[in-house]
Amino acid sequence: MSDTYIYSIGVIGSGVMGEALVSAILKSGVANSMLAISDKRVERTTELAAKYGCSVTSPEEIAGKAENIFLVVKPQDLDALLESIGFKVSPNQRVISFVAGKKTSLIESFLLNSVPVLRVMPNTPMSVGVGASAISAGKFASQIDTSAVEQLLKASGEVIVVDESLQDAVTATSGSGPAYFFRFVEAMIAGAQELGLSESDAKVLVIQTIAGASEMLKQDGASPTKLRENVTSPNGTTFAALQVFESNDLEMIIKKAMRAARDRSQELS
Fold it and tell me: Do 38 and 12 contact (CB within 8 A), yes or no?
């Protein structure tokens, strides 16, 4: 990559995920003077510039002056954005898309030949530094390009590299996954209240239980099956609860939901 660019990083789109990306990039070691952001909402970029010390500029300037161009816009806004900036991007830059469902080949069609394009499916826990992201390389992106993006995102949480054909499966797993988890927490809190606990006490117990179980999965090293078995005494309370899950085929419900998310991702592409 060339060292002639004013900015190392340019982020187009400053919503929740755009801010999470900015935070992660700064934690990765990029100086705020080398980071520029752009968004249609002036008040939003003003807010983020004050918070992170980065520059605010236009998408066109980012396209011409940033070595790494991150696209963090809504899918319906992508084509118009690429029409306005595509001709400014050179093969010495990288374009990294966070746009859900949009293939690297589509983005490449708006750019000059040989521009490296990479596609990332992040998730919202990136905003607190514990996200899960999957990177896929377009046809002009090298291993060096992939490794560079991986390094930039490591401060946001876990990062893996997958073939682009698997991005819809990633969307159904980690992209949409936080919402599955939040829905389960909602149901547990509601269930605890029905059993007599106050809403505040239910929230404390459920959230801490979920957080603790998650930490055990990370630290213990045992499989989720083993950890579940360790808590489940024959004919005990946990066994009784799990039997309800089994009788309602919880695993099939989850698999069906994930297939629906995967199929919708394919439709959007």
Answer: yes
CA R_g for the chain: 21
- Please check whether residue 135 is in contact with residue 161, taking contact to mean a CB–CB distance below 8 angstroms: yes
Kindly state the tokens that stand for 159: 């990062």
Please give the CATH topology (third level) of the domain spanning 177-268: ProC C-terminal domain-like fold (1.10.3730)
Express each pLDDT in 28-60 by its tens digit: 999 999 999 999 999 999 999 999 999 999 999
Structural domain boundaries of the chain? 7-167, 177-268
pLDDT band at 1 (very low <50, low <70, confident <90, very high): low
What is the longest distance spanned by two Cα atoms in the chain?
68
Asked if pLDDT for residue 220 goes beyond 80, the answer is: yes
Question: Which residue blocks in 90-176 are alpha helix, DSSP H?
Answer: 104-108, 143-153, 167-170
Confidence tier at 234 by pLDDT (50, 70, 90)? very high
CA distance 221 to 203: 27
CATH number for the domain running over 7-167: 3.40.50.720
Q: Using alpha carbons only, what angle is made at residue 160 by residues 127 and 33, rounded to the nearest 5 degrees?
A: 50
Residue 268 has a pLDDT of: 80
Residues 6+ apart with CB under 8 A from 212: none
Q: What is the pLDDT of residues 66-76, one digit of tens each?
A: 999 999 999 99
- The whole model's pTM is what? 0.90
In this structure, the chain runs to a length of 269
**Tokens describing residue 37:** 């952001």
